[in-house]
User: Which sequence fits this backbone?
C-alpha cells in the first residue's frame, strides 16, 4: 500500500484497535492476567518489554512492529480486493476470504510465537474456530476502513 498520512492514520488506528481487542480477550481468560514479555532488538541491543499494557503505554518499538504488521495486512488486503474483483462471488463470506489472506501475514509477523504455539502456524482452514474468528475480526476491521 502506498504511504500517505491518511493510510498511516488508518494503520495506527487498526493496530491500536487490534491491540485493545487482544487485551480484552486476555482479560476474559479464567487465568489471572500475567505480563506478556517480548524481547525486541534495537540499535542499542536487545531488551524485554511487557506488551500486555494499553496502547498508550506500549514501547514505541513494539508499536512500530504492530504498525508494520498492519501495513503488511493492508498490502495483502489490497491484493485480495483486486483478486476478488476479477474472480467474482465466493461461497465464503468476504471476511472469511480476507482472513485466509491475512493469516499468512500474521504467521510471518509472529514467527517468534511458533515454538510455543505451533497449532497457530497452519493453513487458515486448519485453525481452531476461535483462532479463525480472530482473523475474521481483523478482516472486518480492515473492511470497515474501505
Assistant:
Amino acid at each position: 500500500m502506498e504511504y500517505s498520512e491518511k493510510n498511516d492514520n488508518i494503520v495506527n488506528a487498526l493496530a491500536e484497535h487490534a491491540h485493545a481487542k487482544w487485551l480484552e480477550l486476555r482479560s476474559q481468560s479464567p487465568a489471572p492476567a500475567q505480563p506478556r514479555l517480548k524481547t525486541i532488538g534495537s540499535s542499542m541491543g536487545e531488551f524485554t518489554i511487557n506488551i500486555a499494557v494499553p496502547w498508550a503505554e506500549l514501547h514505541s518499538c513494539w508499536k512500530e512492529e504492530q504498525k508494520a504488521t498492519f501495513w503488511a495486512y493492508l498490502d495483502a488486503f489490497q491484493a485480495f480486493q483486486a483478486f476478488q474483483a476479477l474472480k467474482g462471488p465466493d461461497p465464503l463470506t468476504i471476511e472469511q476470504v480476507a482472513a485466509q489472506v491475512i493469516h499468512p501475514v500474521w504467521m510471518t509477523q509472529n514467527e517468534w510465537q511458533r515454538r510455543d504455539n505451533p497449532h497457530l502456524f497452519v493453513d487458515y482452514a486448519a485453525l481452531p474456530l476461535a483462532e479463525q474468528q480472530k482473523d475474521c475480526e481483523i478482516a472486518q476491521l480492515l473492511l470497515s476502513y474501505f
Observations:
- The domain at 5-144 is CATH 1.10.490 (Globin-like).
